[in-house]
What does this fold into?
Amino acid sequence: MSEGIQSVLYYNEAEAYVEGLRAYQIKDIGSDKWNSQRDHVDKLNIQAVVDATNNVEESIKELVLTHEKIPVLVNEVVALDLWKRQVLPLILKMEFNAQTSFPAYVTMFYEATLVGLLEVLLYHGECHEAAGDTLHDLLQYCQQKLVWIMSGDEDWHEVSTEKTDVSENPHQEVVRRHKKISFDVAIKCIAIVRYIAEYSKDVSLGITTKLLNTYDFPAIFASLIDNPPWKVKGETPGEWLKYDNNKWNKVSSDEVVELSKVEGQLWIGMMTFLMSDHCQPNYQLNSSNQATILKLRSHFTPVLLDQLPVLVNLQRYLEELAILSAPASRPPLILEQIPELYASHEAACSGKWKAIAVQHFNDIFCMSKDRLMKQAEQFCNIYDMDVMADLVSETPRCESCGSPAAKRCSSCAASWYCGRECQVNHWPKHKELCKEISKTKQTNKT
It folds into this structure.
């Protein structure tokens, strides 16, 4: 990231965006007002990342706390999650005639934006108190995402590799991008759960119980450490592919043991679950989760302990647990709270899922040219391509083949290519969006 980028939004502009945030229903997804709020959250997320990266006063966090908007952000995540699980599968059974998947993509990508913003906010303890009971919904959301990537039903390297097949139709592209976004979101959920565990002492006991026992995140984290979906063997001996910072990297056998950010989050989370005063006494061990957690003993290598020396204490605890077979903690007597946002959205849409799918198929997936033009205009207003190039430190990837790219489309400046051949091959898929963005840029100049 460029050190010169300090601000994407003026303070008054950011305050107006935050103050205007409202909780939408699933039926509203894709509407003009919903799209406008999505654009505002995109900008707020960019500014929050800039603030956190530059270690300056985090104005977005303060505004979200002042206006009590964290529950609204969680509501939007839950609504999109249910939309993807209940509405999107019905839409994907319908016959596409759209020329571009762009409107569908930006709708789905909003989930990653929301989760990214919550990841930045929940790093701070005061945001957990502000989230209140919506943490119940957020924990359910994270549990579903992590269980999904643990399922082993997908080739995660294949699913989460950013690539473009010019022979793909919009329907196939939507399916591929949906899985890619879901994988990225699941990775972000690990940090969110770790933060909730760290600050669970400051929220209700019901949150701690859900975290440790209802969803058993200690066992989930242990399973992810033991069988990581973000690490696979390469095609040549001694080569590995490892997912870090939203992309797959080729690494050697020596480099693969270096902890990535997500692996560090998992180990620190295990320390919190099993060693902290506010989690350890409330965790109910049984033969199943104890056996899962004890598998971690094989991972304590000198290389790991050199990188995180504090794990020596966890290693000692697990060795004692294996020998003594510590008795299960007596669970506290509490009434478990139902995730209210999930229950509310499901009740509002009961018996209406098919009607909502038909409406959204027409409004989002088969968008008219006028609405596509409006979305292109909003896209240009959010993402100034020169600013975004400074915000992103990694090399851009070719839209056609996925290789490192050095040239941008001269008309829209939104797509990157490694050479003219790939640009020509990708043009049939790119031309509609390119024309709309180019028109919008010319309109904005005048």
Confidence is low (pLDDT under 50) at residues 385-393. The radius of gyration is 23 Å. Strands lie at 231-233, 239-244, 247-252, 407-408, 416-417. The first strand starts at residue 231 and ends at 233.
